[in-house]
Specification:
The chain is an alpha/beta fold. Helices cover 20% and strands 22% of the residues. The strands form three sheets. Strands 1, 2, 3, 4, 5, 6, 7, 8 and 9 form a nine-stranded mixed sheet that branches. Strands 13-12-15-16 form a four-stranded antiparallel sheet, with no helix packed on it.
Length: 521
């Protein structure tokens, strides 16, 4: 009865509670459904931990108190600029054109448009930015509806839109990073969508799809009903086989692989399965050594239904705020600590996920039970305090490493040539490196015979190993032979991980042309 009264009061205030998966339906804060600890007063801090992010909407504050290092508002230009220096992820939207009756056309739109006054101005204003091309393009409308849910684009069309956006961004700013769209979740049907995108791109343009950063969303949502009929909560991915869809089920069916029960929405094993599936797909497509970001995750199910009754899973358990907190704790622990040399990203100690984004700071729509702010949109609630504690408890430092090495041979003269040596420098720490970086090249493993002078870079190198800076030096007057060299990046403190501060490379210098067999597909 108390919940019924509460819901009636909410209606009087103009709120409606709806459980849905699209960002576009009304709801309200859950702060009245659970007792709270005293509001946490954060110390003065400029922490911007790149591992952790949260989505924002206009009118919110309190982000700096979290210490999160990146954020997304689903627009191309920021509506809020946090004072802690957090990175903004630019949301570039894709939309396949349709007729008035909902028939899909072969044309598409990109927003902002690829013009000087559109996306061009955004790129000029934000050099070196991160661009997410599309938001859940796999999500089509509900059957019989003309209302779009997210970017609503078939995979063959998305491949073309991605191509156009990628090259427009790169030609205008080569330092920018471009990421694929996060699909609703990572399931067999969604992976088929990615396969179609990948294959279409290669067939159309004659080379693999260039991706700087791989991106995913992670929710556990059924895609078909119990009998395999599309569509259910997440809808079947556009252009894919409905038979691959995860179906809803009863409590007795929740253990089946092909079933996604409501009770599994916050199941850490299902969560881990999707992360691993995405990493396996990346490896199968030659993309293992690329960063993977998770630009949306949380619980989209909240404590109350639209009628004010508790929202229960198949076992009769409610999605309380305490339950959502347990899910947050488990997922953050998994992403922070799970590594795998066979699947993970080499330059980030083989972590599977480099950065993650909680949805949301404050949503009056889907997933309001996951809100990090109270209804004043400025004070951290209990869940927000928990997220903040995770961020502040994590090590917060820059941690440099030597990445890819390469060389370029100059023109031979009198049997000798200069060789340009090159090294990529990454920062796998959670803090941005703003102080100058010193890189040294050596002729010997003992690091006593230096090649050239130390190279000093004055950087602004983001953490989480997603970005890199390049250091070069010339090894002059080399005669033909086999050469090995060592590169060292100097850390500021012995407390840093120094195990990856030195890397060696070897090359063969031969004045005459060398012919190697070439394998073609």
């Amino acid at each position: 009865m108390r919940l019924k009264v509460l819901y009636t009061m909410m209606l009087l205030l103009g709120f409606v509670l709806v459980v849905t998966t699209a960002h576009g339906f009304a709801s309200n804060s859950a702060e009245n459904t659970i007792s709270r600890s005293t509001v946490y007063a954060a110390p003065e801090s400029d922490i911007a931990n790149c591992r952790y992010g949260a989505t924002l909407t206009a009118g919110e504050s309190g982000f700096e108190e979290l210490g999160a290092g990146w954020y997304l508002d689903f627009y191309a230009s920021p509506t809020i600029v946090p004072t802690n220096g957090a990175e903004y992820a630019h949301g570039i939207r894709v939309s396949q054109d349709k007729t008035d009756t909902g028939v899909y056309l072969s044309t598409y739109r990109i927003s902002p448009p690829l013009t000087d006054g559109g996306l061009g101005q955004v790129i000029d204003d934000h050099p070196g930015g991160l661009y997410l091309i599309g938001n859940e393009p796999d999500r089509g409308p509900d059957p019989g509806s003309l209302i779009r849910k997210q970017d609503d684009t078939f995979p063959e069309i998305y491949a073309q839109a991605y191509h156009d956006a990628y090259y427009y961004i790169k030609e205008r700013d080569p330092s920018a990073e471009v990421a694929i769209a996060g699909l609703v979740q990572v399931t067999p049907g969604r992976l088929q969508y990615l396969d179609i995108v990948w294959d279409t791109y290669r067939d159309l343009y004659g080379h693999p799809m260039p991706v700087d950063v791989f991106n995913m969303h992670l929710y556990v949502l059924s895609e078909t009903d119990r009998y395999g009929n599309p569509n259910d909560t997440a809808n079947v991915a556009l252009g894919t086989d409905p038979a691959l869809g995860k179906r809803s089920g009863t409590a007795s069916e929740c253990s089946l692989d092909q079933v996604y029960c409501i009770a599994e929405h916050d199941n850490i094993d299902r969560f881990a399965e999707q992360v691993v599936a995405m990493r396996e797909w990346m490896k199968a497509h030659g993309q293992q050594n690329k960063p993977l970001i998770l630009s949306e995750f949380s619980s989209l199910y909240s404590p109350l239904k639209a009628d004010g009754d508790p929202f229960l899973d198949e076992y009769g358990n409610q999605f309380t705020i305490a339950r959502i907190k347990e899910f947050m704790d488990a997922t953050v622990d998994y992403m922070s600590n799970t590594t795998d040399p066979n699947l993970g990203y080499e330059y980030d100690d083989y972590r599977l996920v480099q950065q993650w984004m909680w949805f949301s700071m404050h949503s009056e729509r889907t997933g309001w039970g996951s809100n990090l702010l109270q209804s004043d949109k400025s004070t951290l609630n209990w869940l927000g305090q928990t997220y903040r504690d995770h961020i502040h408890d994590d090590p917060y430092n820059a941690d440099l490493l030597v990445g890819n090495l390469s060389h370029h041979v100059g023109t031979f003269s009198s049997g000798k040539a200069d060789v340009l040596l090159s090294a990529d420098i990454h920062n796998k720490g959670a803090r941005k490196q703003t102080a100058s970086i010193t890189v040294q090249f050596y002729k010997n493993a003992a690091l006593t015979q230096m090649i050239g002078d130390p190279v000093v870079i004055t950087p602004d190198l983001g953490g989480c190993a997603r970005e890199s800076l390049n250091a070069t030096t010339t090894w002059p007057n080399l005669t033909p032979g086999i050469y090995t060299y060592w590169v060292k990046v100097v850390e500021a403190s012995d407390e840093d991980d120094l195990s990856d501060n030195v890397r060696s490379g070897t090359f063969i210098l031969d004045e005459s042309p060398t012919y190697l067999p070439v394998a073609t597909r």
